[in-house]
Amino acid sequence: MVNYRRFMSPSFRSKIFLASFLCVGLPVLICLSVYSYLTRDAVEEQAITNAQKELSLVEENVSNLFDDMINVTNFVQFDTELNTILKQKSKEPPNNSPQDYESYMEDKSIRKTIENITLLGEKSFVTILLQNGAYYTNYAIYDYHPQNYFQTEWMEQLQSLSGYRSLWVGAEPTVFAYDRVDHPYQVSMARTLRDVNQEIYGYVIVTILETKIRNVLDNQAKNETIMLIDQTNDIISSSNEAMINKSLPFGQQLEAKNMSQTIQWNEEEQLVTMTQFPVNNWKLVSIIPYKEATQNINSIFSNVFFLLFMSFVLFFIILVVLMNRITYPLKELNTSVQKVQQGDLSFRVDVKSRDEVGQLASSFNQMIIRLNEMFEEVKQTEIRKRHAELAMLQSQINPHFLFNVLNSIRMTSMKANDMESAQMLMSLSKLLRATIGSTNEMILLKEEMELIQDYITLMNKRQRNKIVWITDIEKEAETIFVPRFIFQPIIENAIIHGLQQGEGVISMEATMNGESMQVMISDNGRGMNRETLTKLTESIGENIFTEKSHHSFSSIGLANVYERLRLSYKSDTKISIESEENMGTRVVIQIPARRDNGV
């Protein structure tokens, strides 16, 4: 039970340690967590960057292979001399027809040209196949007969191409008998040869062995797999030969617009990076396990994180030791306070430090001394308290005595048939009782009207000229609570300043407007000119009611009304004054409709 209470009400020292941890430790932990979260993104970004760099090197080498194929095709298609011979040959009988010497030399020149244009680049198989069946190659026809190209599945697609467009054929079984064993697949590029009328007279086909591409892909890290795929995600070349001519297993997971992304494959997260060749829209896809891609970078970040964490632990230990030394005097001070609480006023705090805790201990000792000195003063205070209670009782008795005396005088006047004096005494008695005999601040508007009526009755008895009092109060408004005597200062101003204690008419109207009540008090006195009214209105808006005024209204009386309304209703009240010189004055007050006295 004790431990539970201590846990629910920790000591000041515990609060300091907790505050230190919250102010220092918690931000550090948050920073470390954010650092860990941000480094994950940085690690992934760096891994992607590394993968893209490696893939760009592979792309460059594969592009060189494609460029060599394109260069051969371009030479055949655009060389003027070669094209002239080929166009002429396309109109002659096939190669197996008897040839004259000139035709023989032209064929030899074509084959020599094909041999020459393939010497500089990678070895490739070049085939020029004319529509009449004539052909020219840089390989022996017993390996593969060129006219067999007419039977391929893609020949019809090649014939449908227009202009200089090329057809790229993905991995096919190698057709060249000599290379078929060591190189099971080949990759080809084909283009049509057209005359000035855009009629096809022949075809140029450049073929390379797929192993040339695979050799480029195999030169990467052991844990990285790079594949060459076509537009339909079919694998053209891969470091894993078994995957060639198969569909990319995770092709559906790839986002076409995102060239680097992470996917789940083989029950492991993989980092996939892609790049596209513009010449044929084929893609290179790099696949590397995410853990292996980020292993080295993660190791660096983990070491930094560990050093930061150990630095925080060391710093916190030092903080605990320092805070314990700093708060030890507070523990001693607490022990002293408990002794004093038990009644031992002779105990003194023994803390000699010169800091705030030492000053507090010194002040505590001075307080104990002062307590002993105040014991005697308490007795005198008790005596003065009893005297004050007696005086308060007397102040409660005096008003009642005054009311009883006034009532006795009223009864005597009535016995003497002096009804006018009796009426005045009754009105005065009611006003005095309402002023000093009641504790309720809020009264009904109906009761407030009765008090105003008594006030006007007394004022009419004091002066020669009588005041005509006219009221027009809605029935619902009579049940609204208002501050006691809130309208009396306005009535007094109207009598003294507006009517100048002469005869006249004062009227009061009260109407309901939803949840608010509007009270309008008017007189037919001398009123105010525009300048005076403007100054008074501005003073109301600015709450300036400290200076005395000789205008048709007393600023002191208005200050009393305004301040009481502001205290009672806050800002939900409005006061406006309308007046014209020699035409009287009207005060309009709008207040919330309060239907209880707030007690």
TrEMBL record:
The protein's organism comes out as: Gracilibacillus halotolerans
Q: Which positions carry the signal peptide feature in this UniProt record?
A: none
Specify the enzyme's EC class, one word. transferase
Checking PANTHER family in the record gives: SENSOR HISTIDINE KINASE YPDA, SENSOR PROTEIN KINASE HPTS
- Which reaction does this enzyme catalyse, per its entry? ATP + protein L-histidine = ADP + protein N-phospho-L-histidine
Gene3D superfamilies from the xrefs?
HAMP domain in histidine kinase, Histidine kinase-like ATPase, C-terminal domain, PAS domain
Give the record's membrane topology: Multi-pass membrane protein
Q: Record's InterPro entries?
A: Bact_2-comp_sensor_kinase (IPR050640), HAMP_dom (IPR003660), HATPase_C_sf (IPR036890), HATPase_dom (IPR003594), His_kinase_dom (IPR005467), Sig_transdc_His_kin_internal (IPR010559)
| Ranges where the HAMP domain occurs | 324-376
Please state the protein's primary subcellular location: membrane
All copies of domain Histidine kinase, residue ranges:
486-595
Please identify the protein, giving its name as recorded.
histidine kinase
Q: Name one GO cellular component term.
A: plasma membrane
